[in-house]
């Protein structure tokens, strides 16, 4: 019986320690009062999200697809998401008719929400809305897109050439951020693209 009691005490402390340490390395997380820094942080730290387009196969219904993306080299993002897509997939195919799209990200995959539910306002969420456009081949921007994506998604370099993957970017028109109680955090596109505390070394390529 004594052994069983010690066992439960040890288990209790083990569980408590585990729950306390679940992905809560939030030392780089911006102050919730700084919406611009939070939005840029979410885009920089995430490497996948849900990209929604207007479906040509579902009569114009919204179609959300999990996609990988990058806004630049690790911790040196420009804030503009780049993608490596093929028209064999509905997302890229939809843009041939309607370029409107939105990318939705959550703080939850980063691991800094603790035990908060992803829908809890303290667990930041971001939706960037605009147009999903093809990056012109053999340009400085195409080089930047390749560097940004392959530095975070090395597997992409080996994807089948006959699938004709191409680089795309989201030309942002609207920014919807919730990172605390009180609703949407107001922010202009100019503020988002040029935050005072995070200048992009390659911004001319974005």
From TrEMBL:
Name assigned to this protein: CREG-like beta-barrel domain-containing protein
Residues annotated as domain CREG-like beta-barrel: 30-193
Record carries keyword Protein biosynthesis: no
Pfam families reported for this sequence: CREG_beta-barrel (PF13883)
Keywords attached to this entry: Signal
Superkingdom of this protein's organism: Eukaryota
Species this chain originates from: Aquilegia coerulea (Rocky mountain columbine)
Signal sequence residues: 1-23
């Amino acid at each position: 019986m004594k052994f069983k009691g010690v066992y439960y005490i040890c288990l209790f402390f083990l569980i408590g320690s585990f729950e306390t340490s679940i992905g809560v390395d939030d030392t780089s997380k911006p102050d919730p009062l700084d919406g611009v820094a939070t939005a840029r942080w979410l885009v920089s730290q995430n490497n996948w999200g849900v990209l929604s387009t207007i479906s040509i196969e579902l009569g114009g219904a919204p179609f959300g697809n999990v996609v990988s993306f990058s806004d630049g080299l690790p911790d040196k993002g420009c804030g503009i998401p780049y993608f490596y897509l093929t028209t064999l997939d509905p997302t890229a195919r939809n843009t041939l008719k309607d370029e409107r799209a939105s990318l939705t990200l959550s703080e939850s995959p980063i691991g800094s929400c603790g035990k908060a539910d992803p829908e809890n306002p303290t667990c930041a969420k971001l939706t960037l809305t605009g147009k999903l456009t093809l990056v012109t081949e053999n340009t400085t921007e195409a080089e930047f897109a390749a560097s940004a994506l392959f530095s975070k998604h090395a597997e992409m370099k080996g994807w089948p050439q006959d699938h004709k993957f191409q680089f795309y970017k989201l030309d942002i028109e609207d920014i919807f951020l919730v990172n605390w109680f009180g609703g949407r955090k107001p922010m202009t596109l100019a503020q988002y693209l040029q935050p005072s505390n995070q200048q992009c070394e390659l911004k001319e390529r974005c």
